[in-house]
Amino acid sequence: MTPSDTLRYTRISTHGSGAIPAVGFGTLIPDPVATKQATRAALEAGFRHLDCAERYRNEVAVGEAIHDAFKAGTLRREDLFVTTKLWNTNHRPERVKPAFDASRRRLQLDDIDCYIIHTPFAFQPGDEQDPRDGDGRVIYDSGVTLAETWQAMERLVDDGHCKSIGLSDITLEKLREIVAVARIRPAMVQVESHPYLPEWELLDFCREHGIVLQAFAALGHAMEPNLLADPVITAIAERVRKTPAQVALAWAVQRGTAFLTTSTKPWRLQESFDISTLPEDAMQEIRKSISTNVRFNSVVKTGVPGFIPGTR
Ligand SMILES: NC(=O)c1ccc[n+]([C@@H]2O[C@H](COP(=O)([O-])OP(=O)(O)OC[C@H]3O[C@@H](n4cnc5c(N)ncnc54)[C@H](OP(=O)(O)O)[C@@H]3O)[C@@H](O)[C@H]2O)c1
């Protein structure tokens, strides 16, 4: 990195919670001990944006890692941006605040920087996170609309412990509907995005409305076709003397999105944080020369995660 290259420290302005660190660590890790170690490693590598969810069933471990860093004096609350998410079984308005407060308790945080509706799909309310009928089909909840859940989210902002709110796994069509009726606009939208699924139209809409687009699967979920083996990405990596992962992540920030990546390996977290600005021709080449189009995660169609802790 040249001393002036501050790409890794990019913050994207939004309404509600000031500026969101573009470089984010995702905590979708099956094992709580591994979660705590990886979160600690991510903080040590420099990540200041953590993405959590009640669905990941490991908020306690994330909270412990954060508080260890607070106690050690290596991290200040004001430097950290924490997102967590409302699960599908808690969309009924009366369930939103209890779910939010439970996440705050598990994370041991008074305030959440951004609280996100994990998917636009409401599941049967209750303690079972994955409710299924006798034939194994998901039981959806037709008794609540996304707009009603959004209003309950807005009330969390009014109450003061939630700095901003957002949506995830949402289509442009549904996002338009919420933006049209929102009293408090979404600060962030978290969707799958990478060079094989750039979502330019969604990004344009988000920009127009001051919403941060946060890309998950920024490295392609380590699935096939392997984004990190794409000839366009590997050729640029060689040219700029970076790794393919660093090229994909730099591209994400430079085009104006935030991103999430996950690893349990400290050296990979250091690598993923160590991004530098790409030359403009490399940015254009990724946009124009890659024609592969893949969605790796079908959660956007069903509300059912592609993989969940314990199954990955
Ligand atoms: N809203 C949603 O529905 C949703 C869905 C999925 C994910 N997410 C969020 O997004 C986060 C990111 O997860 P993801 O799977 O999408 O992330 P990803 O970064 O696209 O993929 C992670 C995979 O890439 C590997 N990897 C990490 N760093 C690497 C590097 N520098 N070089 C090469 N390979 C590397 C990891 O392997 P190792 O572990 O072996 O290093 C891991 O298997 C999740 O933790 C979660 O917070 C949200």
Attached small molecules: NADP nicotinamide-adenine-dinucleotide phosphate
- The N- to C-terminal Cα distance equals 34 Å
Low-confidence stretches: 308-312
Number of DSSP E strands = 10
Protein structure class: alpha/beta
> What is the count of DSSP helices, taking H or I runs of 4+ residues?
11
**What does the largest sheet look like?**
8 strands, parallel, barrel
Indicate the mean pLDDT.
Answer: 95
Shape: globular
Classify the beta-strand content into a percent band. Answer: 5-15%
Task: Write out the strand line-up for the largest beta sheet, numbering strands in chain order.
Answer: 3-4-5-6-7-8-9-10
State Rg.
19 Å
Describe it for me?
- By secondary structure, the protein is α/β, with parallel strands linked by helices.
- The chain is 38% helix and 13% strand.
- The protein has eleven helices and ten strands.
- The chain has helices at 32-45, 59-72, 93-107, 146-159, 172-181, 200-208, 231-240, 244-254, 266-273, 280-289, 299-302; strands at 11-13, 19-21, 23-26, 49-51, 81-86, 114-117, 165-168, 188-192, 212-216, 258-261.
- An eight-stranded parallel beta barrel has the order 3-4-5-6-7-8-9-10, surrounded by five helices. A two-stranded antiparallel ribbon has the order 1-2.
- A hairpin with a 5-residue loop joins strand 1 (11-13) and strand 2 (19-21).
- Helix 1 (32-45) packs across helix 2 and helix 2 (59-72) packs across helix 3 (93-107).
- The radius of gyration is 19 Å and the shape is globular.
- The two termini are 34 Å apart.
- Bound molecules: NADP nicotinamide-adenine-dinucleotide phosphate (NAP).
- Residues 26-28, 51, 168-169, 190, 216-222, 228, 245, 260-265, 268, 271-272, 297, 299, 305 line the site of NADP nicotinamide-adenine-dinucleotide phosphate (NAP).
